[in-house]
């Protein structure tokens, strides 16, 4: 049984763990405008990695798009192409979100040749270009802006050789330290870090630290990614990097998981892509868009609320299998899980103690600012039980209902009454993964 005790206050539901890679697309906006989808989710911050891939025929975000001719002078604003990036960032800020800016390149799935993932020939000059981009969006340089754009990331998945960085790990560590030093010298007020490792990599962290120590500089945050299907992974990824950073002398460096998503297998996604393997990896209960993914999302969000992880960004950003819609454009299960997370963050932000539950279950609870409404978010990943018993302490509701998300329902409102022992039961449509948002009103 899960028990939510509203007498035991525990601070706030942490909205910095509710970031994403989603944005407002500009390339096809006249035909398919997903602005309302973006606005509905109310992400406080969005990371702009891979946005160039989601906006075909537009030169935006990636450094080689904004500054295409590296032999030119990076101190001359006329050598930058800011227009498309300005537009997509403007739409994001007007919608109420902020941008976490990844400097570098989107992933490059070319086969025999690579054009964007190659190490820059001149690390110092590349750093000057990055400084020009930061200056444009935070200091008004080059007919630019003064956005509240605090986080700036150097590169993405450098150890994912070929697709993101064709050089060696040693070359990247030197590049990272040089760019970091240059940017911290000019922008000490900003948070600059990276490098968005494919997963937590202590060996590569040691390499980065060694190069940073040579230049007497350290990042403001360490970023890494998580793709998984077990609750053990978000638990370890939310805690182990913090302990390791403290151990190596980077206690003040924030931890940031800025890509995370459920995945059962990479076959059908990044390898052996056939009609059958793609369908298996993307659709159905165990696909990227299915109910197991949605339940994993909710459970992960709950796990990280009590971890030392500083920030997180869900990798739901495109219009394909990594996105929030089925090919038919109907919302997939991930979208509905994000709606539940949104409502916890904004409607019931004052966290209270939650205990109990089976090993497949995770939960958090919160109450509104005025104390008239409360909510309990519950996820069960792969659980066999048909119902989840819930006990409520310290809150006397006049009405109780829940939204049910499982293979048959998409946040379907369901009335709920306590049994003779005062226990509420959250009922699934069938055994397996499910998520519930219990809404209590006085």
Commentary on this structure:
This protein folds into 2 domains: about 15-345, TIM Barrel; about 350-440, Immunoglobulin-like (Sandwich), CATH 2.60.40.1180. The chain has helices spanning about 35-40, 50-55, 65, 85-95, 125-140, 170-185, 200-215, 230-235, 240-245, 275-280, 290-305, 335-345, and strands at about 1-10, 20, 45, 100-105, 150-155, 190-195, 220-230, 255-260, 310-315, 350-355, 360-365, 375-380, 385-395, 400-405, 410-415, 425, 435-440. The longest helix is centred in the middle third of the chain and has 18 residues, at about 170-185. Helices cover about 30% and strands about 25% of the residues. It has a 9-stranded mixed sheet with strand order 15-14-17-12-11-10-1-13-16, covered by helices on one side. Strands 2-9-8-7-6-5-4-3 form an 8-stranded parallel sheet. The mean pLDDT is about 95. It has about 450 residues and is an alpha/beta fold. The radius of gyration is 22 Å and the shape is globular.
């Amino acid at each position: 049984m899960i028990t939510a005790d509203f007498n035991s206050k525990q601070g706030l539901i942490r909205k910095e763990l509710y970031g994403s890679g989603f944005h407002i697309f500009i390339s096809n906006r006249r035909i398919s405008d997903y602005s309302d989808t973006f606005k509905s989710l109310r992400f406080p911050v969005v990371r702009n990695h891979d946005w160039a891939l989601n906006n075909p025929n537009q030169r935006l975000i990636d450094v080689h798009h904004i500054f295409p001719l590296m032999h030119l002078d990076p101190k001359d604003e006329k050598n930058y192409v800011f227009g498309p990036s300005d537009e997509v960032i403007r739409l994001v800020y007007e919608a109420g979100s902020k941008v976490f800016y990844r400097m570098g390149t989107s992933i490059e799935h070319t086969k025999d040749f690579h054009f964007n993932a190659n190490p820059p020939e001149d690390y110092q000059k590349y750093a000057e270009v990055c400084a020009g981009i930061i200056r444009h969006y935070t200091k008004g340089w080059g007919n630019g802006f003064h956005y509240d754009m605090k986080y700036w990331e150097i590169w993405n998945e450098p150890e994912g050789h070929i697709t993101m960085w064709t050089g060696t790990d040693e070359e990247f560590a030197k590049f990272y330290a040089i760019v970091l030093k240059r940017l911290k010298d000019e922008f000490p007020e900003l948070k600059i870090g990276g490098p968005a490792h494919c997963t937590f990599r202590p060996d590569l962290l040691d390499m980065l630290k060694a190069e940073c120590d040579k230049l007497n500089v350290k990042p403001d945050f360490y970023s890494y990614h998580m793709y998984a299907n077990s609750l053990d992974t978000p638990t370890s990824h939310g805690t182990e990097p913090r302990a390791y950073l403290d151990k190596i002398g980077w206690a003040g460096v924030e931890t940031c998981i800025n890509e995370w998503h459920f995945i059962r297998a990479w076959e059908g996604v990044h390898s052996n892509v056939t009609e059958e393997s793609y369908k298996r990896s993307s659709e159905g209960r165990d696909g990227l868009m299915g109910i197991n993914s949605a339940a994993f999302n909710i459970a992960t969000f709950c796990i990280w609320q009590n971890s030392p992880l500083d920030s997180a960004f869900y990798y739901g950003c495109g219009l394909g299998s990594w996105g929030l819609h089925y090919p038919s454009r109907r919302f997939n299960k991930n979208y509905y899980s994000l709606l539940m997370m949104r409502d916890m963050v904004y409607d019931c932000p004052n966290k209270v103690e939650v205990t109990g539950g089976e090993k497949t279950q995770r939960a958090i609870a919160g109450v509104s600012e005025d104390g008239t409404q409360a909510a309990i978010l519950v996820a069960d990943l792969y659980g066999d039980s048909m119902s989840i018993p819930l006990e409520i302490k310290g809150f006397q509701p006049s009405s109780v209902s829940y939204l049910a998300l499982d293979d048959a329902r998409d946040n379907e409102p369901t009335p709920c009454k306590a049994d003779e022992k005062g226990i509420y039961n959250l009922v699934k449509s069938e055994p397996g993964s499910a998520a519930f948002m219990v809404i209590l009103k006085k």
